């Protein structure tokens, strides 16, 4: 049976006159990597900060394994660990002190804390930075310190707010492996990102949030299939263009098509399945197929379709 790790029930958060998140209803299942996507200012951080009990909902509620973030914050905090966009405990001077303090807060004894902090700092290549002051660290290193907090805590629900913004490409792949590793151990992972490539690489399901509202929800492939005429099948052929035209007009579920020099570009859904049917029809009409290309929409196309906005727009 699929267990719901998190349930957003009509969750709404208002700051003054700004509705940061508006009536969010969403279930996240145990053991999945869920991507929360949206342009800047769309409500991702507000959602995650409320889930991790930093904020309280204005209306509605969020449940973590059945426990309300509004009424049972202490219990929720035992389940949830969050890597913020930036380290926030700036009353502490060095990464080592911050992580040791964090390890103690989440329940390790003094000697266990020392051990786990060293292990995780080594895993993330942070050990050499342990005694530096925060202001001396690069953006990517600060990011890794936040991720180290989650690896130390090993929570049942791990939240990463833009985990790979500002990190180099090698570190990015290493962090994705770490996130997948957590999932393998049964952790439920939520990743907020506006990096479509990242979402496609690691997330099993995604939700697209825009201006505080959930606009789309599903597996990446499902969302791609929701764009009308989103796939393009391009066929290069030898034979009569008129015959091809008549054929395409007789087939169902075909959107627009365009001819140019014995090539036809056909806009449709489920391109891979439909291409086989089209090619079989070409063959039965003695039209020789020379080349077939299928283009799927990218996740960027999905994003533009559901938000009608550019990714980095405010
Ligand atoms: N503490 C706050 N006080 C007032 N307004 C806030 C506060 N936090 C967020 N907002 C507003 O709520 C809206 C959603 O912001 P939020 O930070 O949740 O978006 P986001 O999707 O995480 O953006 P980004 O990708 O830039 O981090 C924005 O209009 C923002 O200005």
Estimated share of beta-strand residues: 25-35%
The outline comes out as elongated
Mean of residue pLDDT?
90
Structural class: alpha/beta
Let me know the number of strands: 14
| CATH architecture classification name of the largest domain | 3-Layer(aba) Sandwich
CATH level-1 class of the largest domain: Alpha Beta
Name of the CATH homologous superfamily of the largest domain: P-loop containing nucleotide triphosphate hydrolases
Count of individual domains: 2
State the share of residues found in helices, binned by percent. Answer: 25-40%
Distance between the termini: 40 Å
Query: Order of strands in the sheet with the most strands?
Result: 6-7-8-3-9-10
Q: The CATH topology of the largest domain is what?
A: Rossmann fold
Tell me the series of helices and strands, N- to C-terminal: EEEHEEHEHHHEHEHEEHEHEEHEH
Protein described:
By secondary structure, the chain is of the alpha/beta class. The protein has helices spanning 44-51, 73-79, 95-105, 110-123, 139-153, 169-184, 196-202, 220-225, 241-250, 271-284, 299-307, and strands spanning 4-15, 18-29, 33-37, 59-64, 67-68, 80-83, 157-161, 188-193, 205-210, 213-218, 231-238, 254-259, 263-268, 288-295. Strand 1 and strand 2 form a beta hairpin. The structure holds adenosine-5'-triphosphate.
